[in-house]
Sequence to fold (497 residues):
Amino acid sequence: MEKTESKIDKIINLCARRGLVFANSEIYSPLGGFFDYAHYGVEVKNRIAAAWWNFFVRGREDMVGLDGSIVSSQKVWQASGHLESFTDPLVECKKCKSRYRADQLVKDELKLEVEGLDEKTLGALIAEHKLKCEKCKGELAEAKKFNLMFKTHVGAVESDANAVFLRPETAQTIFTDFKTIAGFARKKLPFGIAQRGKAFRNEISPRNFLFRAREFEQMEIEYFLHPSKSPAFEKSRLHLKIKVLTAKAQEDKEHKMIEKTLEQLLKEKVISSDWIGYWIGEALFFLEQVGLRGEHLRIRQHVSTELSHYSKETWDFEYDYPEWGWKELVGIADRGDFDLQQHQKHSGKDLSIFDDETKQKVLPCVIEPSFGLDRLFFTLLVDAYHEEKDKTMLKLGRAVAPLDCAVFPLMGKDGLDVKAREVFGMLRNEGFAVEYDESGSIGKRYARMDEVGTPFCITIDYDSLEKGDCTIRFRDSGEQKRVVIKSLAEELKKTLQ
Fold:
């Protein structure tokens, strides 16, 4: 019996076929966990990032930006705790030396929830159930910690003194630069520093396409708060309702979700921090603005055993993926003053700032909203993927679609191509992201644009030459509308809003 292709596999194949994203260096044996974005993928990714930047940075008065270095001294990672604590549990086959992430192996083979289990517990489960190597069925060694940071050296001598690391998160450059940025930003607490950039993690077993890669992009905010004052915050998002999986429900083994407004969750102390609740609201509003459907989202509270070494309270936005189930998309963490305290201690530099109101120096506390750009990219594709009879399309939101529209001549002759190029040039000059295409039948051109998520196609036909109008075809409905070419740009601007 022929195996049915899963929805996830269909989307991955679509990404490769239409030039969105695919494995790096495919002409050789590709390294797992590294990907290249081609033209349409770059456009979607950049539009997501621009939407994030416009919403969280340009759209606010209390936010400034940073583009920090990818490489940092090992002293940074020693202070932050990453050298000691940024690890995953690893098991190795004694026979063929294949390596596996122990928690994922236990979860896959035994169908158990493994969040927060340490190496000793995972090792005991592997031994008790006699789990074997997936490749050669050999015996597995004891589970141990594996540090996920990529190490390299600066300069001509490879020595421990010259060792540096590629950053596993963008956050630490924000903390090490905090005092400098606070000095010229002239912002009063609370204020935030936002950064988009590459991060690197040497995953034991990268999997699930873009979801767990070794090179990826983050969009992170460190939002700095006065340690003893909690000023009023904008409450306009607290009416938003979302599915919730609490730590208690997980610890009681119920895994029963509730659905409530953020206002209710704060009032009932399910979310203990007002500012965590605020940033959950901001993140939820943004995710829905770029096109994610709320019915596939939930927030999940970290149980005590899985909290990061720096976190007092953490909530993840999770998306319900086909075949994969619920997986993390965005994290909102209360980091306290851990990072600034650590860097102050290890550097010997005062990182406190002066509070004009109390006339005292204070070391701020931090709330961190952290978005994975590649994960959000893929999640938007999953959410937008739609099949209708023999037609496939990405119903991407107009803010993140790779193109605003495409222009086609009905045929590439009889002056239709000349007129179509004239319309194409006009729209490009008006600032639209537009593509011209005259190859293949008109049906195939529509299909290509549907598959990459282009919301509108403009067709120039023989009537266009006589009457000065054209056809707008709408991606989602397939409906068509005649519009005078002179008013086409205004019509598109209204429709794209």
Notes: The mean pLDDT is 94. Residues 411 and 438 are 7 Å apart (CA to CA). The longest strand covers residues 325-336.
